[in-house]
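OP here, attaching both records as promised.
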Amino acid sequence: MSKPTVALQLYTVRDFTAKDVPGTLKKVKEMGYDAVELAGIYDMEPAAFKALLDEIGLKAVSAHVMADVFKPDVKGTVEMFKSLGCKVIGIPWASTDDLPGGKNYPAMKALMEEIAVHCKANGIKQIYHNHEFEFAKLPCGETIFDALFADIPADVLQVQLDTGWVTVAGLDPVSFIQKYTGRCPAVHLKDVVFVEPGKHEDRPVGQGVQDFPAVTKAAEENGVEIFVVELDEAVGITSMEAAKQSLDYLKTIGY
C-alpha cells in the first residue's frame, strides 16, 4: 500500500502568493513539499505556470475550481487543469441554494454531471469539498452532505473530506473516511482548536484537537491518494510558518 502524496493547498499561503508567486512556490518546495493543490493560477498562462512549477519541482496534483469558473467553458477548463498535471479537481464551496434542498440544486447537479463527462475523458476525478454547513440536516433527516453523495453517483462525484470542518461540525472524520471508502481520493488535513463555545481557530496540523494518526491510518486503509494541508487562517504565526510546521509534524508520523 503506497502512502498518499502530501500536498499544500496554496490558498493557505495566499497572502504570500499575492506578493510573489515564484518566490512563494520556491519556499514551499524548500520547506519540503513536492506537491500542491491549486486555488487559481495567478493570472498566468497555463503553459507558463506549468513551466514555473516544473522549474521549481512542484507537482499540481489537484485543484479547487469554483463553479463560476467552470461555467463559461467546462471542457476547456477541465483540459487546462489536466495540462497542469491535476488528477483531482472540483468545486470547493457552494451555497445551500446550490446543494440538496436548495432552489438551484438541479442546475448545480447538471453542471457537476457535465464536468464529470470531461473529467472522465481526461482521467480526472471530480470532487466536492465540504465545510461545516453541509452537515446540517434536511427535513427528511439526512444531512446535506450525505444527500449530495447519495443523489450523485460515485462515477460522477467523489468526496474531498475536510477534517477540520467535520470536527467543527461535531463529527468524527474517521467515520466519514470509512463511510466513503473508495470514494474519497483526497483529504484535507486541517487542525482546529475551540477557543470558546461556537468559535474555533485553525492550527498547524498536529497542534489542535485532531487525532491525525487515526485519520491518516483510516485514509490509507480506505483508498485516499492525496493528503492536502490547509489552514484558512494562521493564528500567531505566518501562513508559511504554519505550512512548514504542519509538514514537519506529518513527517513525525511517517509522511
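Record two, same layout:
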Amino acid sequence: MTEQATLSSASTTEWIGPRRRQSQSRTRRTYFWMRRLSRDKLTLFAVLWLALVVIAAVAAPAFIPQDLRKSLAPPELAHPLGFDALGRDVLSRVMQAARISLAVGIFSILLSGVVGVAVGVTAGYRRGLVDDLAMRTVDIQMSIPSLLFALVILYVFGTGFLVVVAAIVISRWALFARVSRGLVFSVRQQPYVESAFAIGASDARIVLQHVLPQLLTPIATLATIDVSRAILLEASLSFLGMGIQPPANSWGLMLAEGRNYLTVAWWVAVWPGVALTLTALCITLLASWLRAVTDPLQGSRALPVGSLE
C-alpha cells in the first residue's frame, strides 16, 4: 500500500514538474521582455502613447454635444484643445477619430497579411507555374503607387469604411506575398523540412507544422510597421475627400476640415495632425524594436546578463 502510494506520488510529481517548469519559464521570459522594454526609453514612450490612444479610442463618446456659440473658440481649462467650426470639442473628436483610424489600419493589415501570406506560401511551396503567375501579379501590383491604386478603387466603388479597408487590402497584400514567398524558399531547404518530405508527410502538415511557424515573427514585425502606413494611407485618402465620410470621423478627415482655419483657429487642424504623426511614429518605433529584439544578431547586443538563466 505504501509502495503504491509512493509510486502514485512520484508519477504525480513527474506530471506536475514539467508544467511548473513551463510556467516558470513563461514568467521569466515575460520578465525578460519587460526588462528589455524598460531599458529602451524611446520604445517605452511609444508603447505608453499607443496604449493611451487605444484607451482614448475605447472611451471616446459616441455623440459629441454641439454649441454654435462656441464656434472656433480657443482652448480653455474644461476643453484644452478648443472647439471646431461647428462648436464641437476637438479633444472628443480626436478621441472619436482614433477609433476609425486604428480600426482601418488594424483590420486592413490583418486582411492584407492573410491574403498575402496565403499567396506567398502557395507560390514559394509549389514553385513552377504557380510561383511565376503569383510573382508577376505581385510585380504589377507593387509597380503602382498604393495611394494612386486606392484612389482608383474608391473612385470606381465609392467611399466608406469598408471600401477604404478593401482598397488598402488590395494595395498592400503584395508586400506580404513577396516577403512570405522568400521566407518559404529558405525554410523549404532546411533539413527538418526535407526529412518531413522523406518520411512521406503531407503538404498540409509540412506547411502548418514546419513552414508557417517560421514566418510568424518576421510577418508580425512587417504587419506592425505596415499598420502605420495603412493609417497614413487612410488619412491621405480622407484628406483628399475619397476616404471616410461624415458623419463618421477620422484624423485625415479632421485635417481636411481644419485646413481652412489654420490662420484663425490653428488648433482645429494641428491636434489631429499631432495625434496622427505621433501614432504612426510610435508604431514604427515599436516595429523596429520588435525586429531588433527578435533578431539573434541585434538582440544579443543588449541582453541583460543572466536574464534567461
